[in-house]
């Protein structure tokens, strides 16, 4: 079972190492057991053991502080690894030293950063704005001239003809069966 000295040593290694340290198997469960044991000692009644109860209480408080600091240092290192992975695409470093919950958080952060980069790149290239305004359609049947939402006369169109038209008008034509969307592969 993990004790105060073990936790202190693990924190010391984490502090002075640049890489994420490998924690013993079942470390978090052992820490939970240790905390539970210390709380039980603290709850014991009796004046004979007053000094040992005070010592156990203080050791519990210190142990909790050590564990919180350990988690904080690991989170900082993981965030640093997320930045490295997002910029370089390399995610192998220290991945095996992470706890399962840390791996899950790491993967979610990397994915979020990648999605954010994609959205920014779309905005920079101007593709998103163009996609929202116009859609390419192929007409399934002949369509006479008509007025769009902006009051502009468009058409006529013949069956099989392609047109890049306002998205809202294209949606109406497609839902009415008069045209179909053409998927653009850029």
Overview of the structural elements:
- By secondary structure, the protein is mostly helical.
- It folds into two domains: 4-125, Methane Monooxygenase Hydroxylase, Chain G, domain 1, CATH 1.20.58; 131-181, Ribosomal Protein L9, domain 1.
- The chain has helices at 4-16, 27-42, 50-88, 100-125, 127-133, 167-175, and strands at residues 134-139, 146-147, 153-154, 162-166, 179-181.
- The strands form two sheets. A three-stranded antiparallel sheet has the order 4-1-5. The protein has a two-stranded antiparallel sheet with strand order 2-3.
- α1 packs parallel to α3 (50-88), α2 runs antiparallel to α3 (50-88) and α3 packs parallel to α4.
- The longest helix has 39 residues, at 50-88.
List the helices and strands and how they pair.
Blueprint: H1 4-16, H2 27-42, H3 50-88, H4 100-125, H5 127-133, E1 134-139, E2 146-147, E3 153-154, E4 162-166, H6 167-175, E5 179-181
Antiparallel strand pairs: 1-4, 1-5, 2-3
Supply the key terms:
three-stranded antiparallel beta sheet, Methane Monooxygenase Hydroxylase, Chain G, domain 1, 186 residues, Ribosomal Protein L9, domain 1, mainly alpha, two-stranded antiparallel sheet, rod-shaped
Helix content: 55-70%
> Terminal Cα separation, in Å?
59 Å
Shape: rod-shaped
| Overall structural domain count | 2
Return the structural class. mainly alpha
CATH topology description of the largest domain: Methane Monooxygenase Hydroxylase, Chain G, domain 1
The Cα radius of gyration reads 31 Å
User: SSE string, helix = H, strand = E?
Assistant: HHHHHEEEEHE
DSSP helical segment count: 6
**CATH-level-2 architecture of the largest domain:** Up-down Bundle
| Number of DSSP-assigned strands | 5
Largest sheet: 3 strands, antiparallel
Output the CATH class name of the largest domain.
Mainly Alpha
Note the beta-strand portion.
5-15%
- Quaternary status: single chain
Strand order across the largest sheet = 4-1-5
Ranges with pLDDT <50 over ≥5 residues?
Answer: none
Mean pLDDT: 86
């Amino acid at each position: 079972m993990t004790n105060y000295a073990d936790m202190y040593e693990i924190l010391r290694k984490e502090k002075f190492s640049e890489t994420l340290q490998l924690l013993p198997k079942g470390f978090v469960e052992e820490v939970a057991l240790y905390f539970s044991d210390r709380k039980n000692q603290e709850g014991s009644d009796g004046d004979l053991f007053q000094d040992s109860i005070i010592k156990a209480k203080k050791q519990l408080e210190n142990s909790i502080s050590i564990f919180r600091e350990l988690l904080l240092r690991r989170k900082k290192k993981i965030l640093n690894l997320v930045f490295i992975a997002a910029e370089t695409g390399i995610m192998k470093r220290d991945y095996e030293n992470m706890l399962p919950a840390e791996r899950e958080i790491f993967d979610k952060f990397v994915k979020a950063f990648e999605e954010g980069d994609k959205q920014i790149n779309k905005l920079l290239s101007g593709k998103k704005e163009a996609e929202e305004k116009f859609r390419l359609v192929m007409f399934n049947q002949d369509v006479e001239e008509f007025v769009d939402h902006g009051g502009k006369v468009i058409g006529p169109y013949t069956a099989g003809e392609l047109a890049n038209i306002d998205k809202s008008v294209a949606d109406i034509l497609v839902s009415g069966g008069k045209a179909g969307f053409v998927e653009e592969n850029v």
